[in-house]
What does this fold into?
Amino acid sequence: YPEVRVLAEFEGLIGVSLPMQEVFRSINEASSVDIPVLITGETGTGKELVAAAIHNRSKRRNRPYVPVNTGAIVPELIASELFGHEKGAYTGAIERRQGFFEQADSGTIFLDEISTMDEKTQVGLLRILETKTFRRVRGDKDIHVDVRVIAASNQDLEEAVKNRRFREDLYYRLDVFRIHLPPLRERPGGVTLLTNHFVIVFNSLYQKSVKVVASETYRCLRRYSWPGNVRELKNVIQRAVLLANGEELALDSIPPRIREAAECGVRVATTQFPIHPGMTLKAAEKEFIAMTLAATQGNKREAARELGISRRSLYNKL
It folds into this structure.
């Protein structure tokens, strides 16, 4: 029988499961045609890596690539950030400014968290997709750009369309070629493969000597549901390797919140609660934010609401 080649690493993405092999195939297909792409998937699954991979393998690879997290921009400024503004467009606009679309001309723009756009900005984006033109805020001239749009969302855009929170015509303009990233819990072998990969990466970065991951550590990591997906696993392994003192990544190097959620025991006596006396205020805040994100399945909007802070403040803390 002919040998079947299975990719484990592809443009920074790691995976050998069938769902990830399908993602790799879709990236190749999307790279070969110059059409809008919509990337869907939960927070932390690697949507930004997919967007960068599509650009890097496309005919626009030597042109600008501009990633924009629209969810991190306050609603009052999003139009100005995307489309630019003329001098005096608003208080503090002391000079004309190019927006992200002008900066991405002839290249690719990646719009993450597209569902956070307000109605007016959605209209401006729809116009670019249909006519390749836009106007700066308070501008009176049409500006032509040749930009490929890749959008991403961790929200159900079809549901948003039904609830009239997202324009139906814009949705169909963006959903020309869709790539769905599976959550980590639906990727067979993904946790083990990524754990090994991140151990090697952070071993080198922090000049550690971790050579083996304890079997009980593997079991615990595999039993956890990973609401923050690959990003959460990466942060957990980064912390574990940084704190490691020997050649083995022991179970007690995994944060208590992970061990408790996965119902894993520990080999040495450790604190039973993730927040405990003796922690600094900064460490306690960091752990509580992580706990809240896990409880909200990685939904930053909901986490910010529960924490009583703005989403922008949450992004700054993250």
Summary: Confidence is low (pLDDT under 50) at residues 1-6, 267-272. DSSP finds 14 helices and eleven strands in the chain. The longest helix spans residues 190-206.
